[in-house]
Amino acid sequence: MHTHTIQTDGLRQQVLEAGDGPLVLLIHGFPELGISWRAQVAALAEAGYRAVAPDMRGYGGTDRPERTEDHTILHLVGDMVDLVRALGHQTCVVMGHDWGAPVAWHCALMRPDVFTAVAGLSVPFQPRRAGGPPTPAMAALSKRLGRGELYMNQFQAPDAHRIFETDIAAGLRKGFYSYDGATPDGRQSTGFLAPGHDFLSEVPDDATLPPWMSEDHFAEYVEAFTASGFKGPIDWYRCLDLNWSLTSFLQGKKITQPSMFMVGERDPVRHYAGQHEAGLKDWLTDLRSQTVLPGAGHWLQQERPDEVNAALIAFLRSL
Hints:
36% of the residues lie in helices and 19% in strands. It is of the alpha/beta class.
């Protein structure tokens, strides 16, 4: 397993890679990195695949465009299309977790010629339905859920990333703790904020690292985000309304490639994205498996690597 950089079309991407064989891309979410997939890179390589986990646009060792509007879903899918080419392949299987799941779903949706199968962890496919929101997507989401302010709304502010940069270690520790499966009820985040609070202020100050997160592994995250900051990652959220305006051509489109979905039973994302789980089979026309992992939280592939690895390899073997 090794880390190196690859020059793609206008973007230098840092990737974690191991193995030879059919290409599998592993796309991380927030606030994660390519190293979040380390256990899967090792397992897939051993199973006979070339597993590649990039630091995504705005993160870690990959380039960080300054402009917010350079972080749309079209940019993120384009980065993955060109990464496949730069790695010397024409097709691949794409897998994503958290924010990486919507990127993976859209890779499959937009370029089925390149992405021949897709797996999503934590965030289910959320189709663009006919009669969708006439108002910006964020406003429509808040109105539909009706449970208070969703943290994504606060992330729209131009300075929203500052709360993480004030104390990067504390911000990361609170983020991992509040979405972890081992965190007790009442201390886990729901994603909805009480008046006067933000994403981090609602998390107890005595938050600890999750059981699966070693001090050495945590230090890798702290070092990477200290160097790169949080503006790029939060810019992904700031592009949500722009993404809606750019994707009208996908209205009603389904994913027809082989697919799978896995979510932790105690994943807080289910409070605000779980309503899409029930109808997945209507939009993923070759859904091979849909799994709720008992007791697991949000950081699925790191919390429960053995079970996730087994499921991903079984999916790959089914293709």
